[in-house]
Amino acid sequence: MIKVGVVGALGKMGKEVVKAVLNAEDTELVMAVDILGEGADAGLAATNKECGVKIETDLEKAIKNKKPDVIVDFTQPSGIYNHVCTYMQYKVKSVIGTTGLKDEQITNLEKMSKENNTACLIAPNFSTGAVLLMMFAKQAAKYFNNAEIIELHHNQKKDAPSGTAIKTAQLMAEENSDFTLGNCPETELIEGSRGGTSEANIHIHSVRMPGYIASQEVIFGASGQILKLAHHTMERSCYMAGVLLAVRYVFNNNEFIYGLDNIMQ
Predict the structure, then answer these.
(1) 231 is annotated as an active-site residue
(2) CB-hemisphere CA count at 13 Å for 106?
């Protein structure tokens, strides 16, 4: 049985993780941490049924007392780096769904993971469909020299572009160095109208709108043809198969992983 702690347990994603851990046959919820709701039953908040695990607000104290095998963290970009440093300090394996980590922070965490022989899996997206879209986009990138990414999320998402869009661009850039072949010189009459420019000159456009959860489109173009790849999230429960896959993987391994695609191949 894998002993799991959930950090950000009262958030929208955190509640889904709590529910998934409680329902899986090989995982046991032993720790639930959030900045709010101290003393509340984590199961009651997620499933309307008590599970006996109370919300705690002191992360280090919770780790010391509950000793989870794996921590799943869906919190805020502003604090996630320090959280993972704490997990490394206590040699607790972790699955990180919070986006917004900078490249140098990811590099530092990979170094800490190796030094502490402690697994850490960071994934911009845990939806198996979204990960497959990224993998398909990488494959298509071999055959197209023009591409742009549009990502659409709810209007409470704090970081832009999304981690999924950034990871998609990185994968595409592994196959092609420039996705603006033949584009004419451009002048933006309104700054930012062409979106942000990522690796390999891939333009990324971020939309924030109530009604969306998470969607992404990758548009490839060539003379006489357009290829569009799209994925749409309808419910947050779709992420849980990927989360549990990641929990099981890090429980049995010790390496640092960035992207769920690396354990889906």
Answers:
(1) no
(2) 18
